[in-house]
Amino acid sequence: MGGVWRVVLSPRWILWHVLAILAVAGCVLAAIWQWDRAGSALGSALNVGYGIQWPIFAVFFAYMWWRFLRLELLEHRETAAAEGPAAAEPETVPTPPEPAPLEAGADTGAGTGADVRAGTSADDAPPPWDASPFTRSPVAAPAPVTDAEAPGLAEYNRMLAGLAARDAAHGVARDRETADER
Q1: Alpha-carbon distance 99 to 61, whole Å?
Q2: Number of structural domains in the chain
Q3: Is residue 98 part of a domain?
């Protein structure tokens, strides 16, 4: 049960709860305003129609909030069941190893782009999955397909890789022509 509360009270879902409450409240207020407007001297059948539409929108927002939350909890339960008893343990975030101290006069590679090519730049670090309310939980990538498993799919992947390489080669040539024309 603790896993359910972990999902429901995550920063991502707290934002979704607030947005759903605001959307439903806004629709209810718009419906009340339209019903009041329909009863006034300037009201019309159009206001009555809007007065009926806004509660339908409120129900839609509430249903979608419930549906997305239910799907997230189902995904969480499936992940916990697949991981077994290890899923019940709290997650720990591994700390990166401390960098070795630099010797005096050592070249740090600053300005050479070596840190970016090596993939150690701080800008390349992936953000945590809870950073945005619009992202999904990370999912493990499937294992690559081999020729023995699906020869047709493997052949198709090789064809796509060849097309991508050809486009990259033509793109480089096109970029050189554009630079020469300038």
Answers
A1: 49
A2: 2
A3: no
Number of other residues whose CB lies within 10 A of the CB of residue 51: 20
Residue 97 domain-assigned (yes or no): no
Q: What is the pLDDT of residues 149-170, one digit of tens each?
A: 888 988 898 899 899 999 988 8
Gap between the Cα atoms of 58 and 135, Å rounded: 24
| Tens-place pLDDT, residues 59-108 | 999 999 999 999 888 888 888 788 766 545 555 555 655 655 555 554 44
Cite the DSSP H helix spans in the chain: 2-8, 11-39, 45-83, 114-117, 151-181
Range of the domain at 64: 2-88
- Answer yes or no: do 11 and 78 share one domain: yes
Three-state SS at 51: helix
pTM as predicted? 0.45
Residues 6+ apart with CB under 8 A from 79: 87, 137
